[in-house]
Amino acid sequence: MTTSLTIATKPIAGQKPGTSGLRKKTPVFMGPHYLENFVQAIFDVVGAKGKTFVLGGDGRYFNDRAAQVILRMAAANGAARVIVGQNAILSTPAASHLIRLNKTDGGIIMSASHNPGGPHEDFGVKFNMPNGGPAPEGVTEAMYERTTVISEYHIVESQDVDLSKVGRSDLAGMIVDVVDPVADYAALMETLFDFAAIRAMFAGGFRMRMDSMCAVTGPYATEILENRLGAAKGTVVNGTPLPDFGGMHPDPNPTWAKALMDEMFGPDAPDFGAASDGDGDRNMVVGAGIYVSPSDSLAVLAANAHLAPGYKAGLKGIARSMPTSAAADRVADALGIGKYETPTGWKFFGNLLDAGRATLCGEESFGTGSDHVREKDGLWAILLWLNILAVRKQSVAAIMAAHWAKFGRNYYSRHDFEAIASDKADAMMAALRASLPGLAGRGIEGMTIAAADDFAYTDPVDGSVSQKQGVRILFSDGSRIVLRLSGTGTEGATLRLYLERYAAGPEGLDLDPQEALAPVIRAAHALAGIADFTGRSEPNVIT
Ligand code: VG1
Ligand code: CO
Q: Which of 279, 365, 496, 541 most suits a substitution to test ligand 1, by most atoms within 8 Å of the C-beta?
């Protein structure tokens, strides 16, 4: 017996989605009406009556409880059907695929991505559109507006739905289809990559370590790498998703995936190493003794994608977020295909992918993906790398050296200054923005500033404009400094400083990136006054 209830509520301040959905501390999300208000705002904006949605999350603390609330609210709002991953688990790319495969009206993903999880860490909710991609700004803005005036939400009173078993059930007249979270995703990967070639490579003794960081990709990686591709048992480490990610920070970068880095730079390093984040959309790639920066990874994947069956016809175009290095642009130019520079966040790639202008997309923040879904996709990137390695039969180091020899090298690094007081970070950005008009022509650290602006983007497909997407300082030698504040943090502000310098070669392609970038780093500190404003002269995460 189920009863549909309408509950009176009041707006809660600050339910504004950031770079990718609404992210807050878990206790905030668990507070009275918090999750409910936001979910109702989603349904009020997109409409639920008679619709079908996908639901799943990265398994973090509160994921299971939140899923039950969302199901009850979907039923009370008149949804016809919800497809939910078993145990409420779905990686972000797998959710994107299910939305598309089943031609649904969108999906709700419960994740705070690479942010730690647990009772005192982070939780998040994002809505993806019927194309499988993150809701664009216009939609998230409407959801936020809705949260500021909300006065009631709808929820059915019922027992929990049993999400532990695959199969169909009914919740107050709404169909709930519990599906295997891995099966359809793994099948999609088989259509894109040469599994036989990769299997042969593993059979020939190729060794890999995949660190799933106790987050959502564990079951996906185990099924695909070990079961289907024959990688040795134990290739996947930290392969069981845990509510607190085993206390790890599930962010695949050299700082947080240090155990993997140590192994890949150790005496008995495997041929290939990879890691993915909380919700499975990010990836880090490492060869024996060589780290591949995400910007370089995008460029190498673009230059070699045709070696995989899913991309043998070539690429339509390559899109990268503005802070991502220009390495991929050089590949696009060489291939004679379109290149696009978008603001940070995967939602900006959706229109380019839908319109068939871009095939590959990437961000410097360990995100790469293609038009197979509308999210970045960690395992996809890892499989494309494996496909390339299987065809080229060269080491990661040899592939990188050949790439730089051909295209030159865009030395690149991102310095993060986390948990700065928001007012200090805002004051620093305001002063920097005010200084921009006077910067062009100025010399600093032996370089000359060619241009400086605050990045604004006009979507080439729908004409929508996004302002103030980050300060860019461009030098006449191709070096570049970008500064912006994070839109995914839940504590104070995070300043992201992006640094780039181009070396054409043939000399100077083997420098340590921090050394190669030293003058650019000094210039950035001098121009932005980071220490003066924030009291911080050193970043706490370098990628
Ligand atoms: C960060 C990254 C951005 C990425 C976003 C979501 O945003 O810089 O490139 O798209 O996280 O990634 P910000 O605003 O903190 O810089 V994830 O793996 O949340 O979905
Ligand atoms: Co993520």
A: 365
